[in-house]
Amino acid sequence: MRFGMNEAGSTIEGSMTEAENMARSMGDDVAVVLTNPNLPDNPIIYLNTAFERITGYSRAAAIGRNCRFLQGADTDPEAVRLIRDAVDNSKELSVDLLNYRADGEAFWNRLVLSPLTDDEGNVSYFIGIQKRIGGGGKKPNPEREETLVALRELQHRVKNHLSMIVSMIRLQAREESPQADFGTLSRRIETLQLLYEEMSGRDNGDANVALGAYVSRVASTIGHLDGRQGIRVNVQTVSCEASPEIATQIGFLVSEILTNALKHAFTGRETGTVDLTMEMRDDDTLRIEVSDDGLGLPEGIDWPDGGGLGSRIVRQVAISLDCKVRTEARPDGGTRIWADIDLGQLG
């Protein structure tokens, strides 16, 4: 997978790996886990790289298992009971408990647990935000309230930003395996993680996001997850800002459109090019465009009308951004998809 990137006149050649993208997401010691209570034994269906670093367990070793595998001989049964009660009764919970790494080392884990519901109020997932607060031995209690406030704020952001995705995947996720669930969710959550990373280190958590840098990172991550050797992605962005809420929607829009191109535009072909561009237009709208030299859309398809989960997400995001996603065939073959977003009107 090859990239050409340009933001504000600078060019970066080369591919950023997923690990490089995610290493600093949401702080290097804050783990995020999603479980699906609609599958037998409420298995893990998503975890970030911080979980792997904290616990020593790889994704392959953890996906599909109940989180209880982190417990051990000295884990407090009362803490375990509180977690079980929260899951059984769809309640939020914060608790400190002793967990064990893959190498047997004990550590204290501060957990904030919460149900994720769809627009009908059904619990689709549980989200756990976890932070290591000490090694084994005596239970620590440093700055508990401050730590809990920070974890709950992070949990609140993740829940709000995932609400639309949860609603859309509710039906299919209940009938899929943990591995399929992971594939459905991972790219969307990683798009959020990149947003939080762009926001990290700011004094004001509500400060605007540099869209050019954020979109470039999203494109790099999608290329790593969904691209392949021989397909080049060129990214050209501009310097502009938006609120975290608007940036979230734009991140989802770019993620879904770019993923659609990489997955479907080059079937049966070894080479190709996808161009992702951002530009401010004369009417002060932001144009986001993805253009490929691939096979083109099948006759009779007016994407994103119809289609699967990705197209549904694009349609919903377009409503949120008050824009229309347009598609046309390129004269030289391939497909061009674009949207004009009025950032000033959105606030």
Q: Using the coordinates shown, work out and report the CATH topology of the largest domain.
A: Beta-Lactamase
Taking the sheet with the most strands, its summary is: 7 strands, mixed
| The top level CATH class name of the largest domain | Alpha Beta
Number of domains: 2
The CATH homologous superfamily name of the largest domain equals PAS domain
The rough form would be described as elongated
Which structural class is indicated by helix and strand composition? alpha+beta
Fraction in beta strands = 25-35%
Low-pLDDT residue intervals, each spanning 5 or more residues? 1-28, 171-175
* Architecture (CATH level 2) name of the largest domain: 2-Layer Sandwich
Total strands: 14
The side-by-side strand order for the widest beta sheet comes to 2-1-9-11-12-14-13
Distance between the termini: 36 Å
Q: Please report the number of helical segments.
A: 10
Radius of gyration: 21 Å
Order of helices and strands: EEHEEHHHEEEHHEHEEHEEHEEH
* Global mean pLDDT: 79
The amount of helix comes to 25-40%
Secondary structure elements and pairings:
Blueprint: E1 2-7, E2 10-13, H1 18-22, E3 30-35, E4 44-47, H2 49-55, H3 59-62, H4 77-88, E5 93-100, E6 106-117, E7 123-135, H5 144-173, H6 178-199, E8 209-210, H7 211-226, E9 231-237, E10 241-242, H8 244-264, E11 272-280, E12 286-292, H9 309-321, E13 325-329, E14 335-341, H10 343-346
Parallel strand pairs: 1-9, 9-11
Antiparallel strand pairs: 1-2, 3-4, 3-7, 5-6, 6-7, 8-10, 11-12, 12-14, 13-14
